[in-house]
Amino acid sequence: MRIDILTLFPEVFASHLNCSIIKRAQDEGFVQVVITDIREFSTDNYRKVDDKPYGGGPGMVIMPGPVFTCFEHVEKLSPEKPKTILLTPQGSKFNQAKAHELSSEKRLILIAGKYEGFDERIRTGLDAEQISIGDFVLNGGELAAMVIIDATIRLIPGVLGDDDSAKNDSFSDGLLEYPQYTRPEVFRDMKVPDILLSGNHQKIAEWRKQQSLERTKKNRPDLLGEH
Ligand code: 6GU
Fold first, then answer.
1. Which domain holds residue 127?
2. Per-residue model confidence as pLDDT tens digits over 3-20
3. Ligand 1, atom nearest to 140 Cα
4. Pick from 71, 91, 181, 203: most CB atoms within 10 A?
5. 144 in ligand 1 pocket by Cβ < 6 Å?
């Protein structure tokens, strides 16, 4: 998969992309992530990319020119037709199902903007899906883009060493993950549940399912359709 990110803050991506699983996925050729600075496509002497909103009001709005030129430049860098995503708090909410959907794409282009917003023609003129990562406002779409690529890359077959480790994740069956334990058996008077030491795999599977259900009911009743 090729992922292009269009951003006004290219430097914020470096540390995360050079970490653990994402780094390995790139080194092993599962994914190529390319960052492009929208500001490089400003036609203004001062490299300006935003301006005051028509009709008045606070803040600045990202102009369509630099974003369209940047997008058209990046699109031509690879022959695959991309799926384009615009990061915005007005988009539809990202979740694990969407991560699975994106993980099977050959090519993604993610466009991150500032919170005051994009000129509406960026939404309507580019064939982009608008995605939000939750009901809160970030200063820019960069962290949202990182959340989306992190969740997506780990679902590309082969990226996680053990193919099963994504299957047991929270949300993969619509429930939160069950409790996990490792050594020691007793830590500060807190004991590992006997059932996990029993060696009875069927009983363990039933216990885990039950724990998943209880945890989901308590913390996320919305996932069970209970509000
Ligand atoms: Cl995608 N962008 C911004 N600026 N804020 C957000 C978001 C995106 N998702 C949730 N909050």
1. 2-153
2. 999 999 999 999 999 988
3. 4
4. 71
5. yes
